[in-house]
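Technical appendix A lists one of the benchmark inputs used to test multi-chain prediction within the project. The record comprises two sequence entries:
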Amino acid sequence: GAGVSQSPSNKVTEKGKDVELRCDPISGHTALYWYRQSLGQGLEFLIYFQGNSAPDKSGLPSDRFSAERTGGSVSTLTIQRTQQEDSAVYLCASSLSSGINEQFFGPGTRLTVL
Amino acid sequence: AQSVTQLGSHVSVSEGALVLLRCNYSSSVPPYLFWYVQYPNQGLQLLLKYTSAATLVKGINGFEAEFKKSETSFHLTKPSAHMSDAAEYFCAVSDQRGSNYKLTFGKGTLLTVNP
């Protein structure tokens, strides 16, 4: 079966522009996570969705970051007014449900802000 | 909050030698612990996980890890390294907030295997 997919695989943008990153989780997975992987900070949790519950946004680094999940499936991470420090690989993961189930990771989107 | 420390950002071994990647955690509750592997330009793949069952956990590709509560450690080992094991390895602890089992990762250890 298909794994977690993310698009685009690479995104280069200019400082100040907005970007949207997309994640398609594994079908039937109700839990979805976004993480950021950067050289200075390693892997960091950003946001968590579970079914129709309110998301846990506690990892978002600033109010320029937002995410939504439509119909309990596809998720979009939006970064407004991008800054150079936003350059990183953004990873999406999904799991069967809440609880200690394996998180399956997508290949990531490499974002470069010039 | 949980935290994870991986000792050694870079480990180099010869093919056929023992692989030992170190991980120590801090947790105020019994932890769930994981090892993930990341090959170049790929996402993370789960190697193994500890969820309070057997303390010696066997994973894929011949890797195993032992949970030692007294040492707050979860070191990853493989008896004989293969060239295909060259990758970056991440230890993680599940930092539970309600139903959110978000992962807190260590900084990673890059494993190089020399012929």
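Chain B touches chain A at residues 32, 36, 41-46, 49, 51, 90, 92, 94-95, 97-108 (CB under 8 Å). The mean pLDDT of chain B is 91. Comparable benchmark entries are summarised in Table A2.
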